[in-house]
Structures are given as C-alpha cells and as structure tokens.
Amino acid sequence: MNAVVHSELPLLYTYRRCPYAMRARLALLVARQPFEAFEIVLRDKPAALLALSPKGTVPVLRLPDGQVLEQSWDIMRWALSADTEGWWSLGQTARNLDLLARNDGPFKQQLDRYKYPERHGLSDPALAREQALQVLLHPLEQILQRSPWLGGERPCATDLALFPFVRQFAAIEPAWWAEQALPALRAWLARWLGSPLFDACMVKLPGQQTLRFSVEQQ
Fold it and tell me: Which 8-state DSSP code applies to residue 149?
C-alpha cells in the first residue's frame, strides 16, 4: 500500500484505533476501492470534518459527488455494493444482522464498561466482562465451531464489522483471554490479526494529513 496525495477519490476521516473506523477501512480495502484517508487528532478535530458531520465522530466518508456517509455500516454498504464474492449479501442473513445488532448495542456497552470501569462507576470489571461473553462471544463461539467464518465457508461483512470489537475485547486482558474455552473464536480472531488485510488496514498515517490509499492485490 502506497500513500500519495490525490483529490478525486472518496475521503475517509478516520482514527487508527477506533473500531468503527477500522471496519470502514477494512470494507474499502476488501472492495479494492482507492480512497483518501485523513487521520484525525482527537483533541484537534478539523473544521472540515465538523462541517461535514457536526457530531464529530469517525468514520465519515465524503464521496466524490458530495454525498456524506456518517455511519460505519453505511460506509461498508457503499464499499461492498458491488457484492464482490458475496461479502455484502452473506452478511444480510437474519442471524448475521442479529449479531451486528448485539455487537453494536449491548456488547459495545459492556466492552466499554469492561475496558473503562472507572468511567462507569464499576468496581468489578469482571461483571461487564461476563455479560459481554454471554451476549455475543459465546454465541460467536458456537457459530464458529460449525463454520470458519460468519459467512460460512468464506468471510462476509459481518466478520469485518465484528472483528475490530472482538480484537479490542481480547486485548484488555490477553492472559485471561488465552485461557477461555473459546477455541473457535480465538482461531477466527488470530486469522484476522495475521491477515495482509489487517496489516493494510493498520498502516500508521501521520495525523492531520490527507493521504491516498492505493490498494494492491492481496
């Protein structure tokens, strides 16, 4: 992946460690869609971002026609609209949409409580950790014991959407995570972490600059 200044491409406002921004970058890379990426600095958000999206959170994608997408799932939908190899359609099953709702709702709530217990007045983060396991991670383990991906024999948009959040959860207490009876889920996570796609997604960009992502064949 090379980064050079460009001007006629979608522009993604992003933040490297944000799981929502990560899923947007993953989808754009999977779609082999060249794009410009602007890595924001949280304490100094650019006026151009706030003009496009007053909420000031990332990701935000400005399309060449001026359309603005402010939600990560909408960006994924746009990127995967050609449905190359079934990435989008395989994520549209009732089960996978339910997993997405669980991830973005109750699991994300418990993930935040587990990672930042002091912010939430939580004296024992293990309580949030256990609820996160019950609401999403144990169901994922059962599914992944039957097939390697949430799309079945191949990954889909739901895999991309959930992976950054499971990654964040696993990184809070790595030693504890390694001891859990979640072998299929841990293997799924390890495949993503070891993939060229993840390496491309996590290229470090200088803050407050617009650079072009030119995607090479993986």
Answer: B
CA distance 63 to 74: 12
Containing H/E element for 207? none
Of 110, 106, 107, the closest CA to residue 127 belongs to 110
pLDDT value of residue 6? 41
User: Is 111 in contact with 165 (CB distance < 8 Å)?
Assistant: yes
Mean pLDDT, all residues of the chain: 93
Stretch 34-55: mean pLDDT: 93
H-helix segments, the chain: 19-30, 47-52, 72-79, 94-102, 108-115, 125-132, 138-146, 157-172, 174-178, 183-193, 196-201
Burial class (CB in 10 A: 0-12, 13-18, 19+), 155: buried
Structure tokens given for 43: 């304490």
